[in-house]
Amino acid sequence: QGRMWAYTVGFTILPHVGGFLGWFINRKEIPVWYEKLKKPSWCPSRKIFPFAWTVLYTGMGYASYLIWNDLGGCSSKAVVPLGLYGAQLALNWAWPPLFFGARNLKMALIDILCLDGLAMGTVCSWYRINTVATLLLVPYLGWLAMATCLTIRIWKDNPEQKPAKSE
């Protein structure tokens, strides 16, 4: 029982690790660069993002624990469902460095579009394994839909600055 508690906590905390690192590394770019970007009127307040991601990452992490547990750990049955989850989590963690760090809106857009596909694949692969785990990802899919639309709008409304040509 004590070991299962550690697995539950570990799986639940894991998504927060990359999320925190992404925020920590890029935190100075947010007030400087992000605030100056043209954003749609429906863009959420900056204050909402930490709360939203805390809730979403906690739900995702616990859901991944449920899947891992139901499939008997890292068994051959877990390769696809947890592989899809891990791949989408990696793309989730890659988005802030692309968007804020590299300021590469096009790559951030490509990343989030791939992330959307992997997140939906994760949900589809989890559906027959554990309904609760699947439902825990529904708010994440909703947030990703909004984030994807926001990324598209920011990319379209903020054309890439071409470096000045030197004579």
Labels describing this entry:
mainly alpha, 167 residues, Ferritin, elongated, 6 helices
Overall description:
By secondary structure, this protein is mainly α. The chain is built from six helices and no strands. Helix 1 runs antiparallel to helix 3, helix 4 (79-101) runs antiparallel to helix 5 (105-126) and helix 5 packs antiparallel against helix 6 (131-157). The longest helix is centred in the C-terminal third of the chain and has 27 residues, at 131-157. It is elongated. The model has no long low-confidence stretch (mean pLDDT 90). It comes from Halcyon senegalensis. InterPro entries: TspO/MBR-related_sf, TspO_MBR. Pfam families: TspO_MBR.
CATH architecture: Up-down Bundle
Task: Report the CATH superfamily.
Answer: TspO/MBR protein
CATH topology: Ferritin
Secondary-structure element pattern, one letter each: HHHHHH
Residue stretches low in confidence (pLDDT < 50, at least 5 long) are none
Helical segment count: 6
User: Roughly how much helix do the residues carry, as a percent range?
Assistant: over 70%
In the CATH hierarchy, what is the class? Mainly Alpha
* Number of strand segments: 0
